[in-house]
Design brief:
The protein has 118 residues and is mostly beta strands. The protein contains no helices and 11 strands.
């Protein structure tokens, strides 16, 4: 059974930091592109950061503040979030994706709430 379980969300003041973690099981983690998405109320889900085994990409809004990393030996992907802003408030989701024969494989976690407020 495939599972992606996020943790580390919570309430933080503007300028503060949080580290989100995602523990994966039930699939070959190293074969997947891993990403963090977020969704604020009333808005579309947006891609925050992506990591392959060699490269990372970030949304312009978080570049220089957030860092995505992965540990294939532990089947985890993390998102270090620094200098947090109220606009970062959202539910953050872990995603794993790969292409396959006849269909893609696209897995999602349940999400973890991040609230940035004074």
């Amino acid at each position: 059974q495939v599972q992606l379980v996020e943790s580390g969300g919570g309430l933080v003041q503007p300028g503060g930091s949080l580290r989100l973690s995602c523990a994966a099981s039930g699939f070959t983690f190293s074969s997947y592109v891993m990403s963090w998405y977020r969704q604020a109320p009333g808005k579309e889900r947006e891609l925050v950061a992506t990591i392959t085994n060699g490269r990372t990409n970030y949304a312009d809004s978080v570049k220089g503040r957030f860092t995505i990393s992965r540990d294939n030996a532990k089947n985890t992907v993390s998102l270090q979030m620094n200098s947090l802003k109220p606009e970062d408030t959202a539910v953050y989701y872990c995603n794993g994706f790969r292409t396959g024969r006849g269909s893609n494989f696209d897995y999602w976690g349940q999400g973890t709430q991040v609230t940035v407020s004074s």
